Amino acid sequence: MSLDVMALRAQFPILSQQVDGKPLVYLDNAATTQKPQVVIDALVDFYTNCNANVHRGAHHLSDEATRRYELARDRVAQFINANRREEVIWTSGTTESINIVANGLVQKLGTGDEVMVTEMEHHANLVTWQQACKRSGALLKVVPIHDNGELDLAAFDSLLSPRTRLVAFPHVSNALGTVNPIRQLTAKAKAVGAWVLVDGAQGIAHGDVDVQEIGCDFYAFSGHKIFAPTGIGALWGKFAVLDEWPVWQTGGEMIADVEYLSSTWGQLPNRLEAGTPHIAGAIGLGVAVQWFGQLNSADVQSHEQALLASAMEQAQCFDGIRLIGTAAKKVGVMSFLLEGSHPADVGFILDRQGVAIRTGDNCAQPLMKRLGIPGTARASFSIYNTLEEVDRLFDALRKAKMMLA
Amino acid sequence: MQLPSSEEIVDDLAFFDDWEQRYQYIIDLGKAIPGLAENERTPDRLVKGCQSSVWLVSRIENGLVSFDVDSDAVIVQGLLALVLAAYNNKTPKQILDFDIEGYFQALDLERHITPTRGNGLRAIVAKIQELARRSIN
Q: Per its UniProt entry, which superkingdom is the organism in (chain B) (predicted)?
């Protein structure tokens, strides 16, 4: 069996549009993925037939909204193989998920403690820990990478110490596409007693995420990277860890008993979910993971690898392309420079030909400095992209090269 | 090459019927303006976008404001040339009276000065307008 890409594409209405009279070639999937009709329908149906606040209404609509909203939590829990549904905390996305953990960590750390991240972090998984360290007096250590974009595993080992309290790393690098050996890294960090947070923003949409198998304490991800709406995501954490993690925002929903001068907190998941949640978004995320989970994950991965292989092969034959990030294990992300041209110019010329890519620092300024480049152009593939679209990318690049020479 | 006036640029760009010619024209305009020497690209003159960077130097002589600009991206440099054509060697009042949004609309390039574009162009326009406003007050 292989993926029926044309049938998949047909489920994404946005992909049939034209840009400046040319068919859209959407290769910015690492920034955000497009939404299948079932997800769009779920949002419309919620607001059309079911809108009410959750967990508090004494009426039919609220009961139905709550049922759908909590069903979405079950679906996400099942999708990532959480041990319990209460381990799934709704957030606005990966950034908020990491902030919840970092905010709590400040109360647990002091001088002499260490936090570890890698050189390939997105700002969301760097600035958060950097600021948590500043506030708590802990030391931030940064694990170097090799020039090909792979993590320096020997350095990872040597920087770990009994003082390491938390280790954070990306499942997949957003700028380079590198897939990290997250099980191995987690095992090493757990051996020194550190908490482990995996930034799953780029990892969630590429196949199997099994949080129990990974062995980490926290896995953070955004819905919009996996065919769900923006503004919704999740923090998964081990029950015992989340249950005693300091509360984040305070207010309604997260409390048990409230007096004027003191309050007690509710149970998981509510204790980390203050206020009215993004109900429609959560429902949309539940539908999205169920939809994605029904695809054969081996087929998904082999299709994505075929797109990547075609792109890498064409890039190597293309005079003037310098690939940034050539790790042995990558998802469908090709970061590159067109020699003699600024990435922003390449992006402009591609855009005029209907080809959508990302250009710039990829929200990873320290990584760009480490690699000695101002930024990159980045094409990132998803399940609905075709080999013909990879060819269109290179046709467009040939024109860019000609115009910018 | 003498930089054309903003009116001439509007006419020139209307003449082209495909995007390649239009962008080639913008790229050529960008190459025609002098830019800044490496040592003039100082951090205090930098307007950083997340996609490309722009440097701006301004001076006022005899009541006229003039600018030198540079960018690390050639299309942005070309877009800056369009801005210079409108603003260079004008009085502060002329600068403030100029309808820059309408100008970019007439050029069919308004997408480049929307707030979502991280190319620093909008920030440059704002800086020039601020400079003009301050020199009047």
A: Bacteria
Would you state the structure tokens that stand for residue B68, as one six-digit string? Answer: 């030198």
CA A267/CA A279 separation, integer angstroms: 19
Q: Considering only the top CATH level, what class is A41-293?
A: alpha beta
Q: Where are the domains of chain B?
A: 6-136
Q: Are residues A152 and A143 in contact, defined by beta-carbon separation less than 8 angstroms?
A: yes
What's the pLDDT band for B113 if we cut at 50, 70, 90? low
| Cα A381 to Cα A293: distance, rounded to the nearest angstrom | 18
- The one catalytic residue in B1, B2, B50, B111 is B50
| Residues in chain B closer than 8 A to A344 (CB atoms) | 51-52, 73, 75-76, 119
CATH superfamily of A5-30+296-404: Aspartate Aminotransferase, domain 1 (3.90.1150.10)
Rounded to two decimals, what is the model's pTM? 0.94
Question: What is the helix, strand, coil percentage profile of chain B, to 5?
Answer: 55, 15, 30
Q: Mutate which of A19, A342, A349 to test chain B, going by most B C-beta atoms within 10 A?
A: A342
Chain A residues near any Cβ of chain B (below 8 Å) = 20, 341-345, 347-349, 352, 359-361, 363, 374-375, 399, 403-404
Measured at the alpha carbon of residue A196, what is the angle toward residues A171 and A273, in degrees to the nearest 5? Answer: 90
The predicted-structure confidence for A175-221, as pLDDT tens digits, reads as follows 999 999 999 999 999 999 999 999 999 999 987 899 999 999 999 99
Q: What are the chain B neighbours of A404 within 8 Å (beta carbons)? A: 27, 74
Q: Hunting for tokens 């913008």 — which residue is that?
A: B26
Residue A213: CB partners within 8 Å, gap ≥ 6? A81, A183
Q: Where are the domains of chain A?
A: 5-30+296-404, 41-293
Q: CA A77 to CA A276: how far, in whole Å?
A: 21
Tokens 């010329």 belong to residue: A349
- The matching CATH number, chosen from 3.90.1010.10, 3.40.50.720, 3.40.30.10, 2.30.30.60, for B6-136 is 3.90.1010.10
Q: What is the pLDDT of residues A28-52, one digit of tens each?
A: 999 999 999 999 999 999 999 999 9
**What is the largest distance, in Å, between two alpha-carbon atoms of chain B?**
44
